[in-house]
Here is the input.
Amino acid sequence: MTRARLTRGAIGVAGFLIVGELVIRLWVGRTFDFPAPSAILYEAALLPVDPEFLEGSLVTMGNWGLGLLVAVGIAVPLGVLLGSLPTAEQAVRPLLEFLRPIPSVAIIPLAILLIPDDAMMKVSVIVYASLWPILINTLYGMHDVDPVAKESMRTFGFGSLAVLGRVSLPSAAPFMATGVRIAAGIALVLAVSAELVAGGVNGLGVYAVKASSGNRMDLIMAATLWAGLFGVGANLVLQAAERRLFRWHWLRTGGVRT
Amino acid sequence: MTRTLRCRAIAVGAAVALALTACGGGESTDTSASTGGLEKTTIKVGALPIPDPVALYIANEKGFFKEEGLTVEPVIITGGAAAIPQIKNSSLDIAQTNYVSTFAAVERGEKIKLVADMYQAGENTFNIMVPNDSDIKTVADLKGKTILVNNLRNVATLAVETQLKVAGLTEADVKFAEKPFPEMGNAIAGGQADAGWLTEPFITATQSQLGFRKLADTMTGETENLPIAGWMATDDWVQKHPKTLAAFQRAIAKAQALVSNDRKELEAMIPTYTKIDAQTASVITLGSFPSELNADRLQKVADLMLEYGYLKQQIDVKSIIVAQPSDG
Amino acid sequence: MNVLNRLWFVPLVLAAWEVTTRFVVVSIDFPPPSEIVVRAYELWFSGPAARLFLTDDALDNILPSLARMFVGWFLAALFGVVAGVILGRSRSLSGYVDGLIEFGRAVPPPMLLPLFLVLFQSGLATQLATIVFGVIWPVLLNSVDGARSVDRTYTETATVFGLSKAQHLRVVVIPAASPKIFAGLRLSLSLALILMVISEIFGGTDGIGYQLLQAQRSFDAAGVWSAIALLGVLGYLVNSLFVLAERRVLVWHRQANRIP
Here is the structure.
């Protein structure tokens, strides 16, 4: 990250906050009861020293991470498999297309019923929601492989598995990575939403439930802020990993480097 | 924790087949040396982060549970109806419930028992609030208006309907819409609705922050001193854990009595498990905390529900109550 | 028949499901598909033939839901693609907003409902805002990705031919980015359905999500499953339509990458 970019980013954020403060204090605050960004930031700064919040964040992040890992473990192999076997993909496609749009939020009540262990229930919901972006993107990646490259490999006598390993997978990998990154965002939303619906002993969403019952909108927004920050952190980590792993992809496409 | 690890491994296979297998239907912790012969010494109890279940936390803090050989882990739930699946699949042993939800569930065939009383409405604990400049001056003015409630077909709508009846209206004359309590104030102020059924701390909050005024107290007349919330468990659980249940009931009854006699204890406890700060806790209006389940009082709730069409058939409340054993 | 070819797996799964729920795992919360279909019929499809058999309930709930979903998705697609392409090609501009985008993307939409409520006030606007907010990110992300990673050969060729900025955008960038853009649009379409349900569960007054909630509240298990099944079917239909459209637009891309 260059100095220039950091400065620009900071300016962007500052500008946004200032506009927000003005809008809420001068316009929204006239009719409604809603905390201004300054109040929210103040509470947000205090949250890391609140042991309840810290513990809760760890629990939620734990579910999130685990759910994402499991989803990757399922969706990537599945996507590669289906991507290389067109008949299999055709058979399963309608099922996937039917299951995919079912909102995981709707699955939560069902999951509560079927899975007694609270943590496992939440992780399962997260897995379900994260599967699809990774699967879809992997499939897209598999379909996007340069046929010329594959043909060339075949002419040289390489078998299907080798073609898969040397051409298809590396080619599809950037797509998969984007899929994982998107899934990470969705997984966080589900992790928090599951807690908003089901409660629990501790968690980010549980904290929001408590704050909500106590009419502490400023705390809810502060917790939301932190949820966003956690998500940003994870995204940065994933992006850095992506850049490192797929350096060759960036070089080839000569894209605008950030 | 091998059980949990095993469960997580199963989650992988389960997620693939999208057949979410129950991980062994229930937790039965320590069967080893239990004090006083309790079937279970550690139980998970679900409660809302509101003033009503304060006795649970007081019983924990003051050691009432420990005296009975019980360890209680409080779990935050998001609503009585939401907790029913959780007691059914044993992720919770006992949970907070509101009586309207419970009776409706029982009618649908859910096997639930009420094990202890928790909260009863008092004056000005559940009001219909309107903006100060609203042209709704009496309950009769609610005709054709939108009223916000936290849950449809529940205590809120029932209580409002009793007040509507007094003013000569029925539920068909108004429109109920659901919104969580914290958003009601702003929704009404912004014109999305005309009135809201609120409880504390939202009554005080909308009054001080948005300048709302009280239109009516919904806990008067037919609903005076209405039993609101209690503790529930499944039939199955009650049958399998009679001693544990009795221990819970004794400790809770003691805590309820303490809370009823000493408001200061209540006010000190509330900020520790909710986000209601000490200052707010000292000014909010609260109902009462009965120490015993009273079949007559509860029958009133069931009868009201029948009268207003929330139940299709008469329910005999006595068959749902598990009274506290009178010994010890 | 081609259709039969593609759908043979589905009846198999349905049969297995029916058998499992009738004989293996019997619970009131796990009704067999036959029961679910009956309930769905009762709720939505037992109306007069003139109205495509849709009941009042169906018209009052399914139509508004779909309308909100499409409008929300369309708005998100519009803003997302435009903003994405612009940001993808402009390093300085993206520098200002990248941080904000990353942040906005990570925030769980249900937690922002109170904020949208005071910003947009009307129920409809709040719901649309929630949908757009949740849905825009994949489109934006993929559009930026797509616009950024245009193959160098194309960019260099464009320079050699002396194309103007606008031409470059139209002839090179957008077509090259379109596979990724479409991937993003497709993803956000299914997300739009999800967000629509979320906006209706957390504070709506009508719609499929709202009906789902009501069914759960009244312990109507068959109703819950029906709503979920309906969402699946709608999602499938909508996605199929999208795929058809995509096939038309990306015909050239598929030709190039077609497996012989």
User: Anything to note?
Assistant: Chain B has two domains: 35-120+226-319, 126-223. Chain B touches chain A through 54 residues (CB under 8 Å).
